């Protein structure tokens, strides 16, 4: 069973579950929105550091650094489930938008998820 993220309960009062495809999207979001050293049971390198850059100046250099750290985190923590085919970091005003294109290793299907903060 894939536990839904964020955690919740279903209509029967049981732990809410997610199907395999939704679970992969949820794991990507969880990884991108977790700061390193925040999750005790995952180790000090789990996370991408995106939220640590919320108050950093929104510049091209920031986007390049963020792209490198996100790509490394996705490969390390989700590389057995997905192959990242496209990673775009877009910065506009006060918003950073991450677009992750990936292929599910299990099925070979291509997908994309966008996370904006």
Layout: helices, strands, pairs:
Blueprint: E1 2-3, E2 17-18, H1 20-32, H2 60-78, E3 82-92, E4 95-104, E5 110-116
Helix pairs in contact: 1-2
Radius of gyration: 15 Å
Q: Separation of termini?
A: 29 Å
- String of helices and strands: EEHHEEE
Could you please say which CATH topology applies here?
Nuclear Transport Factor 2, Chain: A
Q: Structural class of the helices, strands and pairings? A: alpha+beta
Largest sheet: 3 strands, antiparallel
CATH architectural category: Roll
Number of β-strand runs: 5
- Strands of the widest sheet, in order across it, are 3-4-5
Task: Compute the number of structural domains.
Answer: 1
Q: Percent of residues in helical segments?
A: 25-40%
Please tell me the overall pLDDT.
83
The share of residues in extended strands comes to 25-35%
**Number of helical elements:** 2
User: Outline, from the CA principal axes?
Assistant: globular
Unreliable stretches covering 5 or more consecutive residues: none
The first-level CATH class name: Alpha Beta
């Amino acid at each position: 069973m894939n536990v839904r993220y964020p955690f919740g309960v279903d209509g029967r009062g049981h732990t809410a579950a997610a199907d395999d495809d939704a679970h992969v999207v949820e794991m990507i979001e969880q990884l991108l929105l977790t700061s390193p050293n925040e999750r005790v049971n995952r180790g000090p390198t789990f996370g991408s550091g995106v939220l640590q850059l919320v108050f950093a100046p929104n510049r091209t250099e920031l986007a390049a650094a963020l792209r490198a750290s996100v790509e490394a985190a996705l490969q390390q923590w989700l590389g057995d489930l997905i192959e990242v085919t496209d990673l775009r970091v877009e910065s506009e005003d006060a918003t950073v938008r991450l677009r992750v294109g990936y292929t599910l290793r299990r099925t070979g299907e291509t997908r994309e998820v966008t996370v904006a903060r």
